[in-house]
Amino acid sequence: MKFDSPATSNPIDQLKVIGQPVSRIDGPRKTTGTATYAYEWHDAAPNPAYGYIVGSAIAKGRIKSIDLTAAKAASGVLAIVTAENAGKLEKGSLNTAKLLGGPEIQHYHQAIAVVIAETFEQARAAAQLVRVDYISDKGAFDLSKLMESAKPEKITGGPADTAVGNFAPAFAAAPVQLDATYTTPDEAHAMMEPHASMAAWDGDRLTLWTSNQMIAWNVADIAKTLNIPKEKVRLISPYIGGGFGGKLFPRADALLAALGARAAGRPVKVALQRPLMFNNTTHRPATIQRIRIGATREGKITAIGHESWSGDLPGGKADGAVSQTRLLYAGADRMTTTRLAVLDLPEGNAMRAPGEATGMMALEIAMDEMAEKLGLDPVELRILNDTQVDPEKPERPFSQRRLIECLRTGAERFGWSKRSAQPGRVRDGRWLVGTGVAAAFRNNLLTKSAARVRLDNSGVVTVETDMTDIGTGSYTIIAQTAAEMMGVPIEKVAVHLGDSSFPVSAGSGGQWGGNNSTAGVYAACIKLREAVAQKLGFNSAEAVFADGQVKSGNRSVPLAQAAGGGALAAEDGIEYDGELAKKHQQSTFGAHFVEVGVDTATAEIRVRRMLAVCAAGRILNPKTARSQVIGAMSMGVGAALMEELVVDKRHGFFVNHDLAGYEVPVHADIPHQDVIFLDETDPMSSPMKAKGIAELGICGVAAAVANAIYNASGVRVRDYPITLDKLLPRLPEVG
Ligand code: MOS
Fold first, then answer.
1. What's the domain range around 90?
2. Is 695 a catalytic residue?
């Protein structure tokens, strides 16, 4: 189905199931431990062996020699795969061939061998006996020293640089100016379930049970890397214990399980060891961001400039921190630039809201600083500079943009009017108390998505699509979509996901999964409705699907009967017309409000309450959507206060590479959280009229926390995370 004109009224609008706070249909499977994660496919392939990965002990250089004698002789060892015996590996996207390093080493903890043994313990013991001699080269590990040599690099969805009008003179002429530099550190996805895979070969056919967000991308990449046809690779990934962008692409576990299984002649399971994950896989790259804003004394932005620097391995990607600055606020003279430095640290890549997440951390502090310079309320400054059109291309309106309503609704609900604009004025016992606000912004991306639906003679509708559920609620919203479309209760829908033998979906990434995958199911259900109507001799335009019946005129037939003796099946997908998407800018909006306490003596920071207001099209399921947003808000608190991969700038690795050293918020860190969804539909997004929500929820949170800390204490910190040491020396003397 081609989506080439704005959505009109359709069966989804009945809202009998869609829009309801349905509990996750996969919940019982997860809470009873019967949902099978990648490492747990105990019966899927007979007699699996276990792999243990050896990671490089240097960041850059080469392996001089590798001695496997002792490891091979260890008990239970079946095979050891290294670059020397793996055969030629081709380059997939992101250079998947380098998932097995050697002799050249690109980064610390790059996999250089996998030891396959009868048991996990034997593989682990033998891996300690692998002897490696390295020749170490000098690497570049410090982004701040490489800003001069960094090169322009395009970002996802846009060019490296943009310019409208003439920024420099407009900024110079502005009566009120801000020029500040902000830094964000390297961050890890740190999902609960490590990257894990089981591989089994049947002749030249490979099956991978793995933990992966994007099934079709990964089939293509694995096939390409192993130089086998795509048709020979099957990926199965129905349950995923978190991804956050870290499982968009194949990682070493998948490739080395495949190579290990081939070498051992048996199915092989490989889970990345937790201490390896942080340096072996991808991470959110650190940024340095300079923001300049010029405004009239009344607070109208006249000039806005955002320059961002990040680093990556040779041939890598730039962080898109400037993305939102191209779209969020008005201002006639504007510029953005993106510079990428070559670093020899582990590979940087997407992590929840790549681009906007880091960009909003900087921009939304800058707006708070600007509001103070202007003597304006920070909510009002944002409202004053709202734009209903793409500020770089004024002929393009936003399809929906209710940022002002998000800010006003949030201010009202949060009690913003009671705030002291003057920092450091509110005390609660030993705490200095403050509140902060930030806008939320993330683009809404359209990508095609297909599904197959089947109606059987018991009236059960089965959906199959290679869509994944990374903890987001995909199973549930897909079931709701099929139930609404076919007029059955949700209990009559079965959903099967995460298998490459199913039609190719949008997958889980970039907060595009919810809207696009359900739109694909919608398209397939339209076809199934036509097949049902035809079978019953109904005019498909007149047939009504409700209460398990198909009705037309005064005839009403149970849906189950339409399947006849067997089953009726239909397959289709949604495809977007590029022209329609070009006419409007599609984005999602929100506002974050945060209250913090800062201990007057120790500078301990506690978040006290949080509120997010989101405008993101139709909310398909307020329960799963809320769960996404509060998760994202928690992750934003992590970015504000805790998360930092500490770079060893001499040897080039992330020092805190486990969950003891890499801190993320726990329940005790997260107090009262509230989420409000504005009631809206976006007819430009898809027949579902929905948009993404899961990444919007993190964008701006960290800045709202930073702004609240400033309001509480009067100390402005521009370098994340805001840890006590950055606050303590500058805390005001208090009685
Ligand atoms: Mo997302 S960072 O595209 O999973």
1. 38-138+191-280
2. yes
